[in-house]
């Protein structure tokens, strides 16, 4: 399979805090599949590190109140374009992220509260009918 993966899950230091979140389960997939790292936030033109941002379902704002929706939208669109161009079979996304969250994301209030809903990239992948999962669903997905 060709799988686009949130780059931070592969150890790329692209998160808002300049760190990564390598996931051994994701990295192990490279033995049998082609993994293609992607960071929608960087694709949208945001720097690393960057001020933390949250998505309330309408707009993405950083902790200082700046609207960064356009950058998140651009990154989401580019991730979808890459997935389509490369004929990706699947996209694996980092959970809870304002761009990559699947099913839950932070609320947009910067109070640590999670809310139902996808991040902006997950929303765009869904609209484009490109299959995606959260990194938390790897074990169940690949045991099919």
Description:
The chain is α/β, with parallel strands linked by helices. The chain has one domain. It is built from 5 helices and 8 strands; from the N terminus they run E-H-E-H-E-E-H-E-E-E-H-E-H. Strand 1, helix 1 and strand 2 form a beta-alpha-beta unit. Helix 3 packs across helix 4. The longest helix is centred in the middle third of the chain and has 17 residues.
Our count of helices gives 5
Residue fraction in strands: 15-25%
Number of strands: 8
Indicate the mean pLDDT.
97
Biggest sheet record: 4 strands, parallel
Structural class by SSE content: alpha/beta
Give the low-pLDDT segments: none
Gap between N and C termini, in Å? Answer: 14 Å
Radius of gyration: 14 Å
SSE layout and pairings?
Blueprint: E1 2-6, H1 24-28, E2 34-38, H2 40-43, E3 53-55, E4 60-62, H3 69-85, E5 90-93, E6 104-106, E7 114-116, H4 120-127, E8 132-134, H5 138-141
Parallel strand pairs: 1-2, 1-5, 5-8
Antiparallel strand pairs: 3-4, 6-7
Helix pairs in contact: 3-4
Summed up, what is this model?
With 144 residues, the chain is α/β, with parallel strands linked by helices. The chain is 26% helix and 20% strand.
Keywords:
alpha/beta, four-stranded parallel beta sheet, 144 residues, 20% strand
